[in-house]
Amino acid sequence: MVEIIVDGEKFSVNEKGNLITELKKHNIEIPHFCYHEALGVSGNCRMCLIEVVGQKRPQIACDTPIKEGMEIKINSDLTRAVQRGILELEFINHPLDCPVCDQAGECDLQEYYMKFDKQDSQVSLADKVRKYKREDFGSGVIHDAERCVLCRRCVRFTQLCTNSYELAVGGRGEHSHIMLMNGKKIDNPYAGNIVDVCPVGAMTSADFRFKKRVWHLQKTPAICQGCERGCAIWVDSNKAKYQDSIIYRFRPRENSVNGYFICDYGRYSYKDEQIIKRDDSAKISALALDLRSNASKYDILVSSSLSIEEMSALKTLASKFNMGLYGFSDFRDESFQDEIGLKLRVPNKTANRIGLIKLGLDKNLDKKSSNLIIFHLGKDFEFASKFEFDNVIKIGSNQDADIVCASSYHRDGHTLNIDEKLRFSKGVFEPISPKICDIVSELMGQRVEFDINILKAFA
Fold it and tell me: 132-179 pLDDT, tens per residue?
């Protein structure tokens, strides 16, 4: 660590780090477009030019080495004048469409203009260079060339992160634009991140655009349940008056497990996690009554989509009524695993396979069951066709369930990811349907308390 001086104040920073990132840790913002922590330095946008004491000209912060005792001025007249000049350059051909742009509210260009610029454009609308407005780049990415600031983050993402090289820069001067390499559309399982890394409204999501203004969304941290990687995500939702909450999108949340990105499978899995309103309380009461006299005729099958708390509660239920307890975790899809690139996707498409094993529930059901109760959180019960049974009761968070329960995003729960890291996901919403632990309590006729020592053993 070394000390540097920023606007007359001393700060301790990592001399091997990037100046923009290091100052961000101290809540000091240096405007930038092309630099991204995951994509490294490009140095083409010049938006991060700052005054460095001792240098004749302003320097780009993204590529300025940190040295002991260096002094920079972020709020000086020179730095602000340079930033206004760069913004004026960016706005020469930029459309004045913030009111209808889907990026409004999370657009860096819009924010920098309001913070540092607010000058009138010197170019009339008639003199602006026109480009393509709505190009389908494939995989749910819509490109607006007029809004692009040519930071090339999208190009570098396909080069550095997915190794798919689907994007490039074509044309020259003010006619430069992002183009599809060889005319082939984007086709990689992480394409949604191209929208995320775009600092302006040049890349928007076909799935989300014009569905909801971002300032109406509630942002809640959670853990993706799409596979056993356990990526950190933001759940963006909205609750209109007199209506239930609606999830509008999942976005990556910076984390040591997944870095800055998530896969498209996890990103769009929010569509299977919307609230299902159905009152199955009578069915739960009927099942509880039947268990009092016929519990030995039932077997329980637990899928690896459940949390550690839910699996533990079902162990208690099976023990009390002397019921057969089995686990199922074979949700493998070998084609789902990445061979190159980010390699975040893991073949098993449930979040808690390791937890199932650690709790000793990986006992396969290899006989015919008279009455099978299946507990599963996810989009369907298709895997149930693998088993033989006379009667089945499906308890889960989708429409196929006989008894609907709260989904993974409507209750708190821990899982163990593929690297045996304990992942905690707090419920995003108050559940409308009962949680699995509550259902188990009603079936047992008493409250099931979770032993916190189980988690301590996994931590």
Answer: 889 999 999 999 999 999 999 999 999 999 999 999 999 998 899 999
Q: Which residue has the tokens 């990415």?
A: 141
What pLDDT is attached to residue 165?
96
Residue 425 pLDDT > 80: yes
pLDDT in tens, 42-85: 999 999 999 999 999 999 999 999 999 999 999 999 999 999 99
- The pTM of the full predicted model, rounded to 2 decimals, is 0.92
What 3-state class would DSSP assign to 217?
Answer: coil
Q: Considering only CA atoms, which of 269, 239, 266 is closest in space to residue 252? A: 266
The DSSP secondary-structure symbol of 133 reads S
> Residue 415: helix, strand or coil by DSSP?
strand
Q: What is the DSSP string of 424-447?
A: EE--SS--SSPPHHHHHHHHHTSP
Q: Mind spelling out the 3-state secondary structure of 169-190? A: EECCHHHCEEEEHHHCCCCCCC
Report pLDDT digits (tens) over 101-125. 999 999 999 999 999 888 888 888 8
pLDDT (mean) for 423-432: 89
Name residue 425's beta-bridge partners. Answer: 413
Is 234 in a helix, a strand, or coil? strand
Query: Percent helix, strand, coil in the chain (nearest 5)?
Result: 30, 20, 50
What does the DSSP 8-state code read for residue 231?
Answer: -
Count CB neighbours of 368 within 10 A: 11
Q: Which helix (H) or strand (E) holds 135?
A: strand 135-138
Percentage with pLDDT > 90 across the chain: 80
Place of tokens 């032993």: 451
**Residue 118, by phi and psi: left (phi above 0), alpha (psi -120 to 50) or beta?**
left
Handedness of CA 424, 403, 401, 447 (dihedral sign): positive
Gyration radius of the chain's alpha carbons: 27
Whole-angstrom distance, CA of residue 225 vs CA of residue 423: 10
